[in-house]
């Protein structure tokens, strides 16, 4: 279960222990972030355990009804994707460091994926990608503005320097799954922007439900797991990760003169420390291959292939479950 919701949780510290205890008692693993502004994270367990967790979060647990209506997505895997359970306390579930942005009180207008094309095709709408530069580099919506941020906290500076509430009357924003642009829309409203829109469910939901021939999204969407990127229909993308700096790489990046498999890429070409660490990792992989055993990092492609097959085989079951929520 992947979940997020902006909600007033001033008792987040007190909620940590009972939430962690409940998850551990049911064999659930993963990471959940609690903050005074809400909850965010992904966990995995048996179907019965996840059902029990949903009951705990939305009905019977110490949260009361504060998490009702949370953005919740279910998916399936043959093997447990996480090694341990962690409940973390943080000041924010999405770090912007702008107290005036409070999505639990005010956000922009949600736009369903089915209505997104009509909105962004309008000439009077300014379209902004709220993700970081390395994510935008893999793919984005046509004519979307790229803030070129290295982290979300820089988004405030981008707004101050490039957007004008008096000039930009309609602003539409999007992100990977919906959470980041939800906070961004709240921030813009606090800065005097009157008509602010954001894509409900983010790029992932858009790619899932929008026919490829009707799509305005060009490229692939970066995801924060072993798949690296996905395309239309959430099919496994072609991007890989540099094992030295963890930057996502396109086919063009892998053709660059500074790319060396497992060792370096165009984005870390001058970082000797990263290259030495990557070289040692590659050495261990080579040794494991000679011994006939699998190195931890050697399983990434196999895991991604299994994830893709599992996604196809159980897509309808996931959609049915999500539609019930």
Automatic annotation (TrEMBL):
InterPro entries: Rhodanese-like_dom, Rhodanese-like_dom_sf, TrhO, TRHO_N. Residues 121-215 form the Rhodanese domain. Pfam families: Rhodanese (PF00581), UPF0176_N (PF17773). It is an enzyme of class 1 (oxidoreductase). Keywords: Oxidoreductase, tRNA processing. Its EC number is 1.14.-.-. SMART domains: RHOD. GO terms for molecular function: oxidoreductase activity, acting on paired donors, with incorporation or reduction of molecular oxygen. This is tRNA uridine(34) hydroxylase.
């Amino acid at each position: 279960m992947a979940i997020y919701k902006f909600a007033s949780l001033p008792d987040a510290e007190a909620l940590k222990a009972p939430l962690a205890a409940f998850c551990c008692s049911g064999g659930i693993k993963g990471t959940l972030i609690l903050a005074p502004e809400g909850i965010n994270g992904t966990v995995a367990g048996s179907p019965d355990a996840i059902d029990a967790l949903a009951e705990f979060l939305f009905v019977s647990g110490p949260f009361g009804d504060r998490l009702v209506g949370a953005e919740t997505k279910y998916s399936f895997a043959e093997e447990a994707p996480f090694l341990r359970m962690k409940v973390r306390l943080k000041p924010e579930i999405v770090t912007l460091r702008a107290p005036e942005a409070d999505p639990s009180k005010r956000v922009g207008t949600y736009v369903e994926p089915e209505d997104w094309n009509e909105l962004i095709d309008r000439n009077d709408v300014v379209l902004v990608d709220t993700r970081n530069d390395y994510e935008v580099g893999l793919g984005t919506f046509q004519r979307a503005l790229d803030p070129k941020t290295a982290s979300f906290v820089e988004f405030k500076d981008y707004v101050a320097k490039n957007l004008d509430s008096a000039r930009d009357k309609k602003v539409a924003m999007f992100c990977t799954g919906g959470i980041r642009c939800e906070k961004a829309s709240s921030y813009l409203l606090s800065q005097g922007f009157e008509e602010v829109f954001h894509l409900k469910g983010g790029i992932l939901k858009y790619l899932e439900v929008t026919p490829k021939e009707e799509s305005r999204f060009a490229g692939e969407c970066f995801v924060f797991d072993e798949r690296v990127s996905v395309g239309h229909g959430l099919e496994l993308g072609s991007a890989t990760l540099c094992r030295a700096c963890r930057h996502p790489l396109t086919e063009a990046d892998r053709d660059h003169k500074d790319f060396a498999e497992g060792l370096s890429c165009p984005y870390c070409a001058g970082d000797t420390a990263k290259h030495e660490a990557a070289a040692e990792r590659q050495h261990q992989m080579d040794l494991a291959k000679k011994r006939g055993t699998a190195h931890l990092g050697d399983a990434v492609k196999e895991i991604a292939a299994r994830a893709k097959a599992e996604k196809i085989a159980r897509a309808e079951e996931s959609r049915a479950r999500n539609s019930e929520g």
